Every structure is written in C-alpha cells, then in structure tokens.
C-alpha cells in the first residue's frame, strides 16, 4: 500500500477543514470575540499539514480499493483530530477528552455535547462547531470531491469507499454524477432552509448554524434549550420539513426536484419511512396527552418535533423528553435505532435495512411452509440479490451486538443503565440525545472520561457503518484488496 498516496488525499481534506476554520475566524472577527486567534492559529496549522503532501507528492491517475478505504477512514480520524485544535486553544472547559468528544460528535453529525452552557462559547467557535456538522453531513470525501475538478478513476474509487454499498445500490449514476447530485441537493436544501428560517424570524447567524445542523441531521444548536429557545411554531415546522427531507435518499429528492415524481411515490422505503414517522407521532401524542397535563395540540407539537428529530438522527429538541411516559420514550429508542433512509445524511441502521430485514423474514417464513418454493426478496417489485439481503441482516445483527457491548462497558464504568443504553443507541445512530441525564435537555458532561471515549468510538463506528472502520485496524487485510 502506498502511504504517500494516502497522505496526498488526506492533505486535501485538511485544507477543506482549514478553509472552514478560516471562515470561522472571520465570524469571530466580526463579533470581536475571544475565538479569533485560536481559530486563526488552527487554520494555519491545519493548512500547513494539508499543503505539504500536495506540494511534495505528485498526482496519481489511480488508486486501489484498499487505498481508497484507508483514505476515507484516515480522513475522518484526522478531521476529528484537527477539529479539536480550536477547542483546545480556546481552552475554557475543553480538555483533550471533551474536545475530542465534541469534535467527533460534530463531524459524525451526532450532536451529543459535553457543554453545559453552550451560549457561553464565542460566536466564532459556535460557527466552527456547526461547520463540523456541515463538513461531515454528506461525507468528508464527498464534500472534497464536490469542489474538486474531475479526478477520473481516483474519484470513482474514493466515492465507492466513502459511500456504503446500501447507498450505491440505489444510486444509478456514475461517481461524478452521483457526487454532483449529493452536493447539489445538500447545498440547495441548506440555502432554502436558511432563507425560510430568516423569514420566520431567526437572525442570520442562527439561521445558518441551524440549517447546517438540520441538513446534516446533526443537531448542534447555538442555544442551551435547542429549538425550545425560540418557542416559535413556524420555526419548528420549517425545521421539521427539512429534517424529513434530509432523511430521504438524495437521488429521490433530485428526481423529485427535476419533475420525476413517480420515483418518489413508488419507493416502498420512503413510504415506510413516512408512515413510521406518522404512526410514531400519533402514538406518542396520544400517550403524552393521556398521561400528562399537556393539552392535545401541544402534545402533537412536542411529539411531532421530537419523533421526527430522533427518527432522522438530527437530535434537536423542543421539549424535555426525559419526562415523557414510558411508551413515548420507547418509541424514541426505536427511531434512534432505525433512523432514516440510506443515501441521506441520517445515521442509524437505516430504513432500507429494516425493510429488507422484514422482507427476508417473510421469505424464510414462506419457505418454512413451502420448502420447495423459489422465493426472492423483493423491494419495489424488483428482486434484490441474496448477497445484499444477507449483508443487510448481518449488519443489523452486528449493529445490535456493538450496542450491547458498549452498553455493557459503560455499565462497568458505573454509568446508569438507562444512560448507558440510550447513550450508546444515540451515539451509534448519530442521533445525539439519549434518555435520562443525557436526554434532550441534558448533556454528556458528567460521564466518566472513559465513557466519553467509548461513545466517541461508537459515533465513528456508526458514521462509517462499522465495516470500513474495522478494516483499517485489521493489519492482516493491509496487503489484500478490500471489497465491502
């Protein structure tokens, strides 16, 4: 494996991070806050490390699949690492553990935070915090590819390495076209939501940072009370609409925007995704209304916003879900495990795999009754390969296994079972808030140091969909060709 090739492309990723650090320092300068020099120094150091490989390592016409996977995983890890620099230089409550946790949570669009008083951060640092969401939302490599000229075979391999096979199955475009579609939809949704939020009464800074967090399905808000701070129904409706859109496969959104509506409604995955959210909202609103003093309109408002927020792995909140009745909290856990569609910015197991899991169960149930029958797993009336069905079922099983292992480890280190399980589910699903002390109006500040490192690992595992992350730490695979 050619490590110098990997370094060259990681350099491009570091330059992207340096650019956003520089923009954040400009925001800091405008507001005359204390983060200007930390962000400026961070941009300089990151750019320095990024530019050297580009200067001294020549361009290459192609790379191997193995190198592509290492570029992707290394880019995520190093982005999270350099993302800690602004926090550490600013200091405050940020030691290495808290800075790493906040950085990983930002890039992986998890939205969990160790901050008790978010509003005490300077504006430049808040913008950097939101920027880590936006960089990680469509994938760091996809973001880089979207602003670079065509790279030929290199672009194709990096695209395949960044995007999971579940997404590629539904993206019937060549790599360059797929990257353009993903980036185009991503930028368009961000611009539309920012405009809508400004019209609804938000100031420009809050509109931009909340749009970054919404479209990336991240959930970092510059306000301690998250969306509840605004107490604005129009703002909540706008954010709900864009959370739902951001949880849909971007190729379907592209087809819809270009007038091909039939593909949207033909998708059984999208139909299930929307139906699950509606049923969850209905059940939760009735449950909250029947077991609390809240009137029904406010029960619907609270249930709709928080079910959609968790069900798209965004993590915003307009209510304290820690005091919700048991059924509603159980629904939150279900949606935190499932989340939204493949090909979106959402995390979790993905709706697509849940649909395939269910159809695979039906297939084997029918085979029990008709052993000689030839039955295919079909999605949208098209048979999917047995390999894809098996990989989907395996992924769900391994995902649940890691949730169990992480929960067990957290309990060993004296984390309460509720916080351990819900925090792990929220970390693996890149959702953000769990239940109890790590709930919608809580934070992860009081967790033991080792717990924060474990949850950071779970965030990365969930964002990189487990296999790619594990491969890079399997030395026996370094000399082999990687296909996953």
Question: How many β-strand runs?
Answer: 2
Q: Roughly how much helix do the residues carry, as a percent range?
A: 55-70%
pLDDT below 50 for ≥5 consecutive residues: which ranges? none
Rg (C-alpha, Å): 22 Å
> What is the mean predicted local confidence, pLDDT?
88
Structural class computed from helices and strand pairing? mainly alpha
Overall geometry comes to globular
- Largest β-sheet summary: 2 strands, antiparallel
Q: Biggest sheet: strands side by side, in what order? A: 1-2
Element-level helix/strand string:
HHHHHHHHHHHHHHHHHHEEHHHH
Please describe the topology of this protein.
Blueprint: H1 3-31, H2 36-56, H3 65-82, H4 84-90, H5 96-107, H6 123-137, H7 140-147, H8 153-162, H9 165-168, H10 175-199, H11 204-215, H12 233-246, H13 250-257, H14 261-266, H15 268-290, H16 296-311, H17 326-338, H18 351-369, E1 378-379, E2 382-383, H19 386-412, H20 417-428, H21 449-463, H22 467-471
Antiparallel strand pairs: 1-2
Helix pairs in contact: 1-2, 1-3, 1-6, 2-4, 3-5, 3-8, 4-5, 5-6, 5-21, 6-11, 7-8, 7-10, 10-11, 10-12, 10-13, 11-12, 12-16, 15-16, 15-17, 16-17, 18-19, 19-20, 19-21, 20-21
Description:
It is a single chain. With 484 residues, this protein is mainly α. It has helices spanning 3-31, 36-56, 65-82, 84-90, 96-107, 123-137, 140-147, 153-162, 165-168, 175-199, 204-215, 233-246, 250-257, 261-266, 268-290, 296-311, 326-338, 351-369, 386-412, 417-428, 449-463, 467-471, and strands at 378-379, 382-383. A two-stranded antiparallel sheet has the order 1-2. A hairpin with a 2-residue loop joins strand 1 and strand 2 (382-383). Helix 5 packs across helix 6, helix 11 (204-215) runs parallel beside helix 12 (233-246) and helix 18 packs across helix 19 (386-412). The chain is globular and about 65 Å long.
């Amino acid at each position: 494996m050619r490590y110098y090739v990997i370094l060259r492309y990681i350099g491009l990723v570091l330059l992207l991070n340096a650019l956003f650090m520089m923009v954040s320092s400009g925001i800091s300068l405008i507001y005359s806050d204390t983060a200007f020099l930390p962000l400026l120094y961070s941009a300089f150091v990151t750019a320095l490390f990024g530019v050297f490989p580009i200067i001294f390592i020549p361009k290459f016409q192609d790379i191997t699949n193995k190198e592509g996977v290492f570029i992707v995983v290394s880019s995520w890890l190093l982005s999270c690492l350099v993302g800690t620099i602004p926090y550490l230089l600013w200091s405050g409550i940020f030691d290495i553990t808290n800075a790493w946790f906040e950085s990983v949570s930002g890039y992986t669009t998890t939205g969990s935070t160790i901050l008790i008083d978010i509003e005490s951060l300077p504006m430049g640092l808040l913008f950097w915090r939101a920027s880590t969401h936006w960089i990680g939302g469509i994938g760091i490599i996809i973001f880089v590819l979207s602003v670079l000229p065509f790279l030929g075979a290199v672009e194709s391999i990096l695209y395949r390495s960044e995007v999971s096979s579940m997404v590629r199955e539904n993206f019937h475009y060549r790599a360059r076209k797929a990257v353009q579609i993903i980036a185009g939809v991503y930028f368009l949704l961000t611009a539309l939501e920012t405009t809508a939020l400004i019209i609804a009464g938000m100031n420009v800074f809050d509109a931009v940072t909340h749009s970054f967090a919404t479209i990336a399905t991240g959930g970092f808000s510059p306000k301690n009370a998250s969306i509840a701070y605004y107490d604005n129904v129009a703002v909540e409706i706008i954010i709900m609409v864009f959370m739902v859109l951001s949880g849909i496969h971007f190729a379907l959104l592209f087809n819809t925007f270009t007038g091909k509506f039939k593909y949207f409604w033909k998708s059984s995955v999208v139909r299930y995704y929307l139906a699950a959210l509606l049923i969850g909202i209905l059940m939760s609103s009735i449950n909250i209304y029947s077991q609390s003093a809240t009137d029904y309109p406010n029960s619907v408002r609270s249930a709709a916003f928080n079910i959609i927020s968790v069900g798209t792995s965004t993590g915003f909140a307009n209510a304290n879900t820690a005091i919700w009745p048991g059924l509603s909290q159980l629904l939150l856990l279900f949606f935190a495990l499932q989340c939204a569609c493949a090909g979106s910015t959402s995390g979790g197991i993905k709706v697509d795999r849940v649909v395939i899991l269910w159809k695979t169960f039906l297939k084997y149930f029918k085979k029990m009754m008709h052993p000689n029958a030839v039955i295919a797993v079909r999605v949208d009336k098209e048979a999917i390969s047995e390999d894809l069905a098996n990989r989907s079922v395996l992924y769900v099983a391994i995902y649940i296994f890691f949730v169990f292992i992480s929960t067990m480890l957290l309990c060993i280190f004296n984390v309460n079972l509720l916080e351990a399980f819900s925090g792990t589910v929220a970390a693996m699903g890149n959702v953000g808030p769990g239940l109890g002390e790590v709930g919608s109006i809580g934070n992860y500040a009081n967790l033991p140091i080792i717990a924060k490192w474990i949850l950071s690992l779970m965030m990365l595992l969930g964002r990189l969909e487990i296999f790619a992350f594990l491969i890079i730490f399997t030395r026996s695979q370094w000399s082999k060709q990687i296909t996953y």
